[in-house]
Every structure is written in structure tokens, then in C-alpha cells.
From TrEMBL:
InterPro entries xref list: HTH_LacI (IPR000843), Lambda_DNA-bd_dom_sf (IPR010982), Peripla_BP/Lac1_sug-bd_dom (IPR001761), Peripla_BP_I (IPR028082)
UniProt name for this protein: LacI family transcriptional regulator
HTH lacI-type domain boundaries: 6-60
Alphabetically ordered keywords of this record: DNA-binding, Transcription, Transcription regulation
PROSITE patterns: HTH_LACI_2
UniProt key word Transcription regulation: yes
SMART domains, sorted: HTH_LACI (SM00354)
Record lineage: Bacteria, Pseudomonadati, Bacteroidota, Sphingobacteriia, Sphingobacteriales
Pfam family, one: LacI
Length: 345
């Protein structure tokens, strides 16, 4: 049996009115009286009418759709950003299409092609750990489709960005460890291709410098953010002749995995070795011991990215503004750095 999708012609025939009247009623046009509008909307719902967004976009040059591309969904950070962004998009009359790249550059490139084919009005992006070439994203600029980066951003593209103060957050995290009496602080950092890795590393280094603690390159390990690698590198740190008494991890998933390895070695946290993460992942408060971390205003990140993108969409290309919004982090102290600490929420 051939499928039939209800059209405005079906509604017009059923009500014996013109298709233009149906179209105006469905788009809440002021020239249609309330009684007719009510009849059209009720019948449209009864007949399961779905607006043809592709056809509408061809007429209006707008799809009222925003694309969101994220590198992964393993941590709670990106899903939380997406939820906040979706809520803000809806308030502005937009639907969203979400894709995650599983930390793969090739998948990210493929996802951009899907976004282009879907004729999104704008794109919000956080890049993968593998992304070094940005030609696939520059296509959007050439086509007059605005982009807003968040979290993991492309420094070479002059577009709006929503980030947190990664440098200051890292500085505060390491200084907190120092103020609890730790002196040999290791840092598990991400790939140097990511701006957040570089900024958090600089915050770590400057905190040591401020407190006259010498930098030991042996304690700084850059890795590809694969969780299975954390086991290898934490075991290596613990096997050193002079092991660290604290670890600052680039993110919470790294810190949480490090806690598991440390516990396997029968070491006490935080007495033998303290650990602090970054982002305040959902699991951070649930793990034992609970993880100290730098909390990010995730909801504000998602909302701000949408607001900045909608502003770009509503401007002519020549009036686009490459504003960078920098949000602050907050130190959340838990038991992984201060024993028997009572968290305040």
C-alpha cells in the first residue's frame, strides 16, 4: 500500500477552502479569522499533518533548524550542554539536529555534510581531539551559515565562541592542591591540538611557579583522552622513585579513572595522593571518595551558544560579530582533596 502524507491540499479539500487560506492558518497569519484557523488546526492534528520543512526552507531560505556537533557523549558534559541549548533554541523558534563524532575527525567531516544537506540555519560546534584541519567547517562560512564554537574551539576561525576561563580554573585547582600541603603535583593533560589542553597546562605551570614549586617534566603526561590510557599513565606515575602526592586531571572522566587505579594500589586518597578534576561530571559526586573538581556553568554555555548563534542568523553576513564569551569556573571541594569534607550545595 502506497504511503500518503497529508498535505495542505487534503486539508483545503476537506474544509472546502483554498490552499492559500490553509497555509496562512498554519503559519498563524493575521488575515485568517480565528474560527477558520481553529478548524484548520484541529483538522491538521486529526489528519496527522506534518509541515514540509524542506519546502518551507526553499521558499523562505530558512529551515528554523540549528545543528549541534559534539565530539562525544561518554561524559555528562556534552549531553547537558545539548539539553540547555535545545531549551534555548525552542524559545527562539528553532529545532535542533544533534550529531556526535565519537572523537573521530572523519566522522566530524561526515557530520558536517549531513548538516549542510539538512540546510541548517546555523551550527554550534565543539571539535574532536583529532581535528587539525578546519576546511569542512569553513564551508559554512563561505555559504553564509554562521558558526559558534564552544569548549573545544578553533582558534584560527574568526567566529563567536563560548568558553570558560580554562587557565584560571586550572590555576585555582592546582593552587588548592598546594594549599592542602601537596608539593609533587602531576598533570594528566590532553592533546596539544586542543586549546583547553594548552590553557589548563599553563594554569598548572603558573600555579607551581607562584608557590615556588619546581616543574618536573616527569610529572606532566599528555595523552589522547582515551580512558584505557589513564590506567597505564597513572600506574607509571605511582611507580616513579619519587611519585606524585597529587594529580590534576584535565577532566573528570580522567580523574575518576585515576581514582580507581590509585585504590587498586591500596593508597589512601587524599592522604597518600590527592586528585582533582575539571568540569564537575555527574559521577564526580557519586564516586568514592567524591571528586574535587572545577565546575563549569554548563547550562549557561548551552544557552549562550544558541543566543549568540541566533544573533548571527538575524544579521547580514557583513555585520557578523566574532565575540568570545568567557565564563568563570568554580572550585568544588570534595573528599579526593580534603578528607571528610562536607560539600555545600
Amino acid at each position: 500500500m502506497k504511503k500518503h502524507q497529508t498535505t495542505i491540499f487534503d486539508i483545503a479539500r476537506e474544509l472546502n477552502i483554498s490552499k492559500s487560506t490553509v497555509s496562512r492558518a498554519l503559519t498563524n497569519h493575521p488575515n485568517v479569522n480565528e474560527h477558520t484557523k481553529k478548524l484548520v488546526l484541529e483538522l491538521a492534528e486529526k489528519m496527522d499533518y506534518q509541515r514540509n520543512m524542506l519546502a518551507i526552507s526553499l521558499i523562505t531560505s530558512k529551515s528554523n533548524t540549528i545543528g549541534i556537533m559534539v565530539p562525544e557523549f561518554r561524559s555528562s558534559y556534552f549531553p547537558k550542554v545539548v539539553v540547555a541549548a535545545q531549551e534555548e533554541a525552542a524559545l527562539n523558534g528553532y529545532h535542533i539536529i544533534v550529531s556526535q563524532s565519537n572523537e573521530s575527525y572523519e566522522t566530524e567531516v561526515a557530520n558536517t555534510k549531513v548538516m549542510l544537506a539538512s540546510q541548517v540555519d546555523g551550527l554550534i560546534v565543539s571539535i574532536t581531539k583529532e581535528t587539525l584541519n578546519f576546511d569542512h567547517l569553513k564551508v559554512f562560512q563561505r555559504k553564509g551559515i554562521p558558526i559558534v564554537f564552544f569548549n573545544r574551539v578553533c582558534e584560527e576561525m574568526i567566529v563567536p565562541k563560548v568558553i570558560v576561563n580554562d587557565y584560571e580554573g586550572a590555576f585555582k585547582a592546582v593552587e588548592h592542591l598546594i594549599l592542602t600541603g601537596k608539593k609533587r603535583i602531576a598533570h594528566l593533560t590532553g592533546p596539544s591540538s586542543l586549546s583547553i589542553s594548552k590553557k589548563r597546562l599553563n594554569g598548572y605551570l603558573d600555579a607551581l611557579k607562584k608557590h615556588d614549586i619546581p616543574v618536573d617534566d616527569e610529572l606532566i603526561i599528555s595523552y589522547d583522552l582515551s580512558i584505557n590510557k589513564v590506567n597505564i599513565y597513572v600506574k607509571h606515575l605511582l611507580s616513579l622513585k619519587n611519585p606524585p602526592d597529587a594529580i590534576f586531571a584535565i577532566n573528570d572522566p580522567t580523574a575518576i579513572q585515576a581514582i580507581q587505579v590509585i585504590k587498586q594500589h591500596q593508597l589512601k586518597i587524599p592522604e597518600d595522593i590527592a586528585i582533582i578534576g575539571f568540569s564537575d561530571d555527574y559521577a564526580s559526586a557519586l564516586i568514592e571518595p567524591s571528586l574535587s573538581t572545577m565546575s563549569q556553568p554548563i547550562e549557561e554555555i548551552g544557552k549562550s551558544a544558541i543566543q549568540m548563534l541566533v544573533e548571527q542568523i538575524n544579521r547580514d553576513v557583513e555585520n557578523w560579530k566574532a565575540t568570545t564569551k568567557i565564563l568563570e569556573t568554580e572550585l568544588i571541594i570534595r573528599n579526593s582533596t580534603v578528607k571528610n569534607h562536607i560539600a555545600k550545595y
